[in-house]
Design a protein that fits this description.
The chain has 11 helices and 10 strands. It has about 300 residues and is an alpha/beta fold. Helix 7 packs across helix 8.
Length: about 300
């Protein structure tokens, strides 16, 4: 007889074409024992090999025609979940046995929360040790006030009372199965930007992808109005100032470089790069007094 004190929890995944091997590994890791009350896997492209894996693990298959918008796909997939809580993972994620056991132990405790944060191990070294760990909103209440936002680099809103958020150190590991293709993200971001659908947060990612791909001139055209808007997280604004300051320093526009370094410090004073840029420019300009002030800051 089911324990009526336990809240129902479902697994939710979106999967693309040719991702049957990743999905196989993912679903195998999610079915190590009793935990999920249902599994919903939404295909964004028709693929018989992917479909076969979904059926092999007894998940419910749904379909959403890919429209270059991850939030649309995830929200559509969420709409098919019937459980009270939803745990989402990507097809190239994995839950290791020790973390699966911890999740089983956690399940009775999640009924009082709207959002449960798990650690996302995004990168590993050659010995499989974590090198980049980010907290992510992995288990959320199935409701109309927690939804996915932004077409790429999508996120779930966390505007719920603080006592409704549970933070844990339980991990989900990410293992990229194919080389990273920067053009995929860049194309989607450029489309959103040109369509006027870029939130301040998405503009931050757009300029990052542009500069990472070497499109500095285009990146600057996005960054400068983004900083003037000052509508994003202060940390993102500070990092954007570092990028602009570096660009202008390398192009010997020291006045602009100093301006953006100072703005970056005002947004968030913890980043050393802005101080280093200012000190270097003051040294070039033979202004030791100002350089000394930066050194004492």
């Amino acid at each position: 007889m089911p324990d009526m004190n336990l809240i129902t929890l479902g697994l939710n995944i979106i999967v693309g074409k040719g991702e049957e091997k990743e999905l196989e590994r993912c679903l195998k890791s999610c079915t190590q024992g009793e935990f999920f009350d249902e599994m919903v896997v939404t295909q964004t492209f028709e693929d018989e090999n992917v479909r076969a894996v979904i059926e092999k693990y007894g998940a419910r298959r749904e379909f959403f025609a890919w429209n270059k918008n991850f939030s649309d796909a995830r929200n559509a997939s969420f709409s098919h979940s019937t459980t009270e809580m939803i745990c989402w993972v990507d097809s190239d994620d994995e839950i290791k046995p020790e973390d699966f056991r911890k999740l089983q132990e956690l399940k009775p405790k999640i009924k009082d929360f709207d959002i449960v944060l798990l650690d996302y191990v995004y990168n590993h070294d050659e010995k499989d040790n974590p090198t980049l760990v980010l907290p992510r909103e992995r288990i959320v209440r199935n409701c109309n006030y927690i939804k996915w936002h932004d077409p790429i680099h999508e996120y779930l809103n966390m505007d719920v009372p603080p006592n409704k958020i549970l933070k844990t150190k339980i991990k989900i590991d990410h293992y990229r199965a194919r080389p990273y293709d920067p053009s995929r993200n860049l194309d989607a971001l450029r489309q959103a930007y040109n369509d006027g659908k870029c939130s301040p947060r998405l503009k931050f990612y757009f300029r990052k992808e542009l500069s990472d791909c070497g499109y500095w001139e285009e990146s600057v055209k996005v960054l400068e109005p983004y900083i003037e808007e000052a509508a994003d997280f202060r940390d993102n604004m500070a990092v954007a100032c570092i990028r602009l300051s570096k660009y202008y320093y390398e192009n010997k526009n020291y006045s602009a470089a100093k301006t953006y370094s100072m703005k970056g410090i005002r947004f968030n004073s913890i980043y050393a790069e802005n101080y280093v840029t200012l000190g270097t420019i003051f040294e070039i300009e033979n202004d030791p007094e100002s350089a000394a002030k930066i050194g004492r800051a």
